[in-house]
UniProtKB/TrEMBL annotation:
GO terms of molecular function: ATP binding
Family annotation (SUPFAM superfamilies): P-loop containing nucleoside triphosphate hydrolases (SSF52540)
Entry keyword set: ATP-binding, Nucleotide-binding
Protein's name according to its UniProt entry: ATP-binding protein
Length: 141
């Protein structure tokens, strides 16, 4: 079972319990917020994303989002902080978020809010997607 698979399963259970859930790839979420900012409707879009009981942000760190994206993500996380639940899937440890966001201060502020009252689930082992490759081509055991 992988990160995204686990996040989706939790989201499905939340929907079954009558909760509103949104699932977005981190890069796509940041693009959406940047577009809203450019069109002058950022406040409305932040409210849209902040509304759901559970927001799943998938693959944080797969693509660097830069300082502007970090600022927008910080605004969203701050809006949801202690009000709504957020799941973030990532291969990047919190110590590496500064590189992803292009700003250590923003990374620290986001991590501070995300990690307060959080549960961290660390998944180790081989990638499920590589299970059918011969052992010598997997690279790691």
């Amino acid at each position: 079972m992988g990160k995204t698979h686990l996040a989706v399963a939790i989201g499905i259970e939340a929907v079954r319990a009558g909760r509103e859930v949104r699932f977005m790839d981190c890069a796509r979420l940041v693009e959406d917020l940047q577009d809203a900012q450019a069109r002058g409707i950022l406040k409305k879009r932040l409210k849209y994303h902040a509304h759901s009981k559970l927001l799943v942000i998938d693959e944080l760190g797969y693509l660097d989002i830069g300082e502007g994206g970090a600022d927008l993500l910080f605004q969203l996380i701050s809006t949801r902080y202690e009000q709504r639940s957020t799941i973030i899937t990532t291969n990047v440890g919190i110590g590496g978020w500064g590189r992803v966001f292009g700003d250590d201060v923003a990374a620290s502020a986001i991590a501070d809010r995300v990690c307060h009252h959080c549960h961290v689930i660390k998944i180790t082992g081989r990638s499920y997607r590589l299970k059918d490759l011969p052992r010598e081509r997997r690279g790691t055991e």
